[in-house]
Specification:
The protein has 304 residues and is an alpha+beta fold. It is 55% helix and 14% strand. The protein has a single domain, classed as Hypothetical protein, domain 2 (Endonuclease III, domain 1, Orthogonal Bundle), CATH 1.10.340. A five-stranded antiparallel beta sheet has the order 1-5-4-3-2, with helices on one face.
């Protein structure tokens, strides 16, 4: 058992609520009322980490790690901590939101939610290609097929999860292998190109380089535009510094802000916290839509 420290405010209940509806990672996670299990690849094999809350921290239990030494076990726990954004500092973001009344109401609903990410930049990069010009539900199914065909299996509590292969192993896959798994040759070619290029750049550079340099390195990859580059850095590595524009957020933005929706003002106000703003916007707007749908169904049943 390993203990993961969390930076307050942190709500594991909010983490579970978000993960329960995070469809792109359903094949890699198990969510119960009190725990979150996530699959990762390490040393060429699938591993799993089950997280539960304990006071102001999170407890991690490892599955499939008997062959790992202490250093690799710590690495696996660290990856799980990054997956749930355990050490993210919400202070500056919350301070900005406190003076943004429409958004502050959303922050109160999601209070303590940290940024739950994809399981690394390779995971985010693959999904970014899959969602290009593709409905999100179909993109999630493509990812499920890829993981079922080429992922690293790990069984937890009688259920088999499939972890995304590590970046170096993904880079070795032929486009034909990816195409056979997902049933889409064109996307398979783009996925192969992107993961090989991301592997060449290296995860360390994407994590540690100045944001603009990391972003520009990704933009030089064929098939990666501004939105995909920022998504890989944000959703794969938790780098919140920038967004290429708020056009993709207009529907949810108008739902939260109404007539006060002003992308330029929001960008100026949140600055380097804009990534966290976008995460809360999408998470909160989706939660409100689900709640409205459930109310509508209850009203229909009561009226029938």
């Amino acid at each position: 058992m390993h203990v993961i420290s969390t930076r307050p405010p942190f709500s594991f209940d909010q983490t579970l609520a978000f993960a329960r509806h995070f469809v792109p990672c359903h094949g890699q996670t198990i969510v119960t009322e009190a725990s979150l299990t996530a699959a990762f690849t390490l040393r060429g094999r699938g591993r799993a980490v089950t997280l539960t809350a304990r006071r102001d921290s999170v407890v991690a239990e490892l599955t499939g790690a008997d062959d790992l030494g202490d250093a690799d076990r710590r690495l696996l726990v660290r990856r799980a901590a990054e997956f749930i954004g355990a050490e993210d500092d919400l202070g500056t973001f919350y301070a900005a939101a406190a003076h943004d009344p429409p958004f502050h109401a959303l922050v109160r609903e999601l209070h303590g939610l940290h940024h739950l990410r994809f399981a690394g930049p390779e995971d985010a990069a693959v999904y970014c290609v899959m969602m290009q010009r593709t409905p999100l539900g179909l993109a999630a199914r493509y990812k499920e097929r890829l993981l079922a065909g080429l992922g690293m299996p790990i069984t937890v509590g009688g259920r088999t999860l499939h972890a995304m292969p590590e970046l170096g192993d993904l880079a070795q896959l032929a486009p034909t292998q990816v195409a056979e798994a997902i049933g889409h040759a064109a996307k398979a070619d783009r996925i192969a190109t992107v993961v090989r290029s991301v592997a060449k750049i290296g995860e360390a550079f994407l994590r540690e380089a100045p944001y603009a340099e990391a972003r520009d390195a990704l933009l030089a990859i064929p098939g990666i535009g501004p939105f995909s580059a920022s998504a890989i850095l944000l959703r794969g590595l938790g780098r919140m510094d920038e967004l290429p524009g708020l056009e993709m957020f207009e529907r949810d933005g108008r739902a939260i802000y109404g007539r006060a929706w002003n992308p330029e003002a929001i960008t100026r106000w949140y600055g380097a916290q804009l990534g966290y703003w976008s995460f809360y916007l999408k998470a909160g707007a989706a939660r409100r839509r689900r709640a409205a749908g459930e109310r509508s169904k209850r009203e229909e049943r009561s009226g029938s």
